[in-house]
Amino acid sequence: MRVLHRCPTDRTGAVIGDVVRVLGETGAVRGGVVVGPGLQQSVEELLDLRTVVLCRLLQQSFDAFDEAAAARLGVNRTDLRALDVVLGAGPVTAGELTAALRLSPAATTTVIDRLERSGLVARTRDSTNRRRVLVEATTAARAAEREIYRPVGEAGLHALARYDRAQLEAILDFLTTARRLQQEHAERVAAGPLLIP
């Protein structure tokens, strides 16, 4: 049996250690990575694997946070996405919200109706074009945003304070690249055929 590098003992390290052991011994596929039998595990390969696993765990933590936020607000995940767009972009038209959410106009109207009934958004007339209806966040939505999202934002800024400028630039580059890749592959998946008829 081949002896591989010992990974850290936290959850991520344990996951990577198990994956590397199985991959090295069987050449199986784990965590979206294929390693053939007999392939030597370099430090760089282990770091690449750790990055893949950490990105997956990070995505799961985002999903768990969004699920908890939706539950606190009494809305579903689609409605939470819509509210996030409205909170982030300011007053938006239904058409802009439709494009951002990639929903049909009818589905977007249903989302807006639910959020309006929940007291989280309001429909208002554009002051410069009275025929144009805007969707804007209510005072209650802004208060909920402060309660739910401000603490994690402040904690994130505190955590980033330990990095120097060059490290922050590398983090920003990674985040920009990761966002672009996610968008590209979301479009790829959305355009594909139904996998399970």
Helix content: 55-70%
Name of the CATH homologous superfamily of the largest domain: Winged helix-like DNA-binding domain superfamily/Winged helix DNA-binding domain
The domain tally reads 3
- The backbone outline, from C-alpha atoms, is globular
Number of strand segments? 5
Classify the secondary structure makeup into a structural class: mainly alpha
Described by strand count, sense and barrel closure, the largest sheet is:
3 strands, antiparallel
Q: Which CATH-level-2 architecture of the largest domain?
A: Orthogonal Bundle
Just give the CATH class of the largest domain: Mainly Alpha
Distance between the termini: 43 Å
Uncertain segments are: 1-10, 22-40
Provide mean pLDDT, rounded.
Answer: 82
Question: In oligomeric terms, what are we looking at?
Answer: single chain
- The SSE order reads HEEHHEHHEEHHH
Strand content: 5-15%
Tally of alpha and pi helices: 8
Name its key features.
single chain, 197 residues, mainly alpha, Arc Repressor Mutant, subunit A, 3 domains, 3-stranded antiparallel beta sheet, two-stranded antiparallel ribbon, 8 helices, 5 strands, disordered N terminus, DNA-binding transcriptional regulator, MarR family, DNA-binding transcription factor activity, WH_DNA-bd_sf, DNA binding
Provide a descriptive summary of the structure in words.
Residues 51-180 form the HTH marR-type domain. One of its GO terms (molecular function) is DNA binding. It holds the Pfam family MarR_2. This protein is mostly helical and 197 residues long. The chain has three domains: 7-35 and 43-73, no CATH class; 75-137, Arc Repressor Mutant, subunit A (Orthogonal Bundle); 149-187. It is built from eight helices and five strands; from the N terminus they run αββααβααββααα. A hairpin with a 2-residue loop joins strand 1 (29-30) and strand 2 (33-34).
